[in-house]
Amino acid sequence: MTHNKELTMDFKHTTKRQLYYDQVIEFYQKTGYSAYKIEKLGIVPLKRKAIHNWIVNFVAENGKITSQTSMQSKESQTNEELDALKAEVAELKEQLRIEKLRNRLNEKIIDIAEERWHIEIRKKAGTKQ
Q1: Which residues span the domain enclosing 9?
Q2: Sorting pLDDT into bands at 50, 70 and 90, what band is 128?
Q3: Percent above pLDDT 90 for the chain
Q4: How do residues 43-53 score in pLDDT, each as one tens digit?
Q5: Residue 129 resides in a domain
Q6: d(Cα 69, Cα 29) in Å, to the nearest integer?
Q7: For residue 126, what are the CA distances in angstroms to 14, 86, 118?
Q8: Please, which pLDDT band fits residue 113 given cuts at 50, 70 and 90?
Q9: Is the same domain home to 56 and 12?
Q10: Does 19 share its domain with 44?
Q11: Are 5 and 32 in contact (CB under 8 A)?
Q12: Both 11 and 58 in a single domain?
């Protein structure tokens, strides 16, 4: 009886492997998600332990990157993008500061010209006289 039970369990394990192994490994390669996250997403009706074992075996057999390495490379790429965005924001802030100063300077020049020559430079175009 125990022998029969073991054969049934091996058959179920083999059937699930045939049905879901490729799907799990493909998803793992695309996302780098851990077995825990793959289980929680409910993509396949498998327990975390089975998913984890498949991933570990796949990595050992094929020398592919692990999810941790994948996540580290994604993290470093994200950090580089973040640094580039921070640099761009700093550059844009500096350009804005310069334009504000230029605007204040122009306003001051207009004020001085209006006082000195007694003409309305800011007068709206097309106003009735």
Answers
A1: 2-64
A2: low
A3: 25
A4: 787 887 887 88
A5: no
A6: 11
A7: 86, 45, 20
A8: very high
A9: yes
A10: yes
A11: no
A12: yes
What burial class does residue 26 get, using C-beta atoms within 10 Å of its C-beta: 0-12 exposed, 13-18 middle, 19+ buried?
Answer: exposed
Phi then psi dihedrals of residue 90, to 5 deg: -60, -40
pLDDT at 45: 79
Does 92 lie in the same domain as 57?
no
Q: Is residue 128 part of a domain?
A: no
Evaluate whether residue 89 is within a structural domain: yes
Residue 69 belongs to a domain:
no
Per-residue pLDDT tens for 68-92?
555 556 677 788 888 889 999 999 9
Overall domain count for the chain: 2
| Token pair 């010209």 in the structure block, residue | 113
Higher-confidence residue: 28 or 89?
89
Whether residue 9 is found in the same domain as residue 58: yes
**pTM, entire model:** 0.40
- What DSSP string runs through 22-75? HHHHHHHHHH---HHHHHHHTSSS--HHHHHHHHHHHHHHH-PPPHHHHHHHHH
